Amino acid sequence: MKKIFRYTEKKLLISCYSDELEQICKNKLIAVKVIENFYTSYSNFNVYLKILIVFHLVLLFFINFVIFTGLLFLKYNNFNIIFKLVQKIPFIKNIHNFIIANLLLHFERSDNVH
């Protein structure tokens, strides 16, 4: 059960934030590697932070699903629109900024990243 939950957390992180990171580094593989590096430090977070992050990811995924079905299956990845909506809600904005900041901390310096 614990493995399934960890796998789901990682997939939610990748589906929600890979496009955001890909805009920064212009490479999908680097974006996924950053998320994997973040996930290793995520495992050291306390339970409260883990619950907040999982709640945030599920909320983003649920809003994406609602928008996806509302637009009659035109575009399945609406996370850029959702991130703009999330920035309007103070508590969720703080969680979102915390995740983005921690993801950016896990970039490894390489010749491909500018």
Provide tags for this entry.
114 residues; mainly alpha; 5 helices; 76% helix
Question: What secondary-structure arrangement, pairings included, does this model have?
Answer:
Layout: H1 2-25, H2 28-42, H3 47-70, H4 79-86, H5 90-105
Summarize the structure.
It is built from five helices and no strands.
Assign a percent range to the helix content. over 70%
> How many angstroms does the end-to-end distance come to?
40 Å
By DSSP (H or I, 4+ residues per run), the number of helices equals: 5
Oligomerization state: single chain
Hey, roughly how much beta strand do the residues contain?
Answer: under 5%
Mean pLDDT: 79
Any idea what the radius of gyration is?
14 Å
Helix-and-strand structural type: mainly alpha
Low-confidence stretches: none
Beta-strand segment tally:
0
Main sheet record: none
| Order of H and E elements | HHHHH
Shape: globular
Structure report:
By secondary structure, this protein is mainly alpha-helical. 76% of the residues lie in helices and 0% in strands. The protein is built from five helices and no strands. The protein has helices spanning 2-25, 28-42, 47-70, 79-86, 90-105. Helix 3 (47-70) crosses helix 4.
